Amino acid sequence: xxxxxxxxxxxxxxxxxxxxxxxxxxxxxxxxxxxxxxxxxxxxxxxxxxxxxxxxxxxxxxxxxxxxxxxxxxxxxxxxxxxxxxxxxxxxxxxxxxxxxxxxxxxxxxxxxxxxxxxxxxxxxxxxxxxxxxxxxxxxxxxxxxxxxxxxxxxxxxxxxxxxxxxxxxxxxxxxxxxxxxxxxxxxxxxxxxxxxxxxxxxxxxxxxxxxxxxxxxxxxxxxxxxxxxxxxxxxxxxxxxxxxxxxxxxxxxxxxxxxxxxxxxxxxxxxxxxxxxxxxxxxxxxxxxxxxxxxxxxxxxxxxxxxxxxxxxxxxxxxxxxxxxxxxxxxxxxx
Length: 336
What we know:
Layout: H1 7-11, H2 18-54, H3 60-83, H4 94-107, H5 114-126, H6 131-153, H7 157-160, H8 169-180, H9 183-195, H10 205-232, H11 238-257, H12 267-276, H13 282-318
Helix pairs in contact: 2-13, 3-4, 3-10, 3-13, 4-5, 4-13, 5-6, 6-9, 6-10, 6-11, 10-11, 10-13, 11-12, 12-13
């Protein structure tokens, strides 16, 4: 729309003074990562080596493969959860949607959320989707990811808060209210965007409800990867299941709020370790947390590489380069 503020340009305006922003990026990020490394090393000092050797057993190989597979399945559901939030008739479908999503995934390894937003806006425009729609979908996806992740994290409550977890029924009811009335989740986000003079095109309640259910399914399935790792470390079966799924969702939500740390490195591992320590020894829990990071990075980078390579091959097949006309003898002409 003519005269409307550009979403990417508006979102790119720093919320902090430039000098303070540079200082935070230069000093605070390495300090947090270093502190997390020291904490993990201390936790791994005792049970860590023995727990790491458990992954080298032949019986652990199928569990490791299953861990990667379910995390990939969770990523595919996350693609659909984001795609249904792009309002109106659009071309973000199939491989195009996967390419935009996975490019945005790669940007999370850089500190700050602006890179993911810029990636979605620029790639969406190339696919014919206005920047306002991509901005709305991106911000709503972040909000619903935090909401659904917080809801799924309640699965870890019985082990972490024995005898006290019924108090968490209240936030569970709040979560269900957002499913029934999606406006409870979307209105604060759209109001915030309008406060920053962003053009907002909120999706329908049906689309938001579907996105919430897909996001919950994504959390539940991707969280199973941590459960398989717990089983590989001889952890408990059923209590390990709910604790692992809830711990992964909780850690992902907490680390997503640490925007100055690339992909919440260290923050997520410490959160998983703390949650799993209710069912595993601390060193074993730290080993599972680090193994979870490895599984997630391998799955994300591998799937991103496959999707981007596939998209490139499809574009080349759709727009082949012109070949030189053959000579009468069937050989191509050679131009001097």
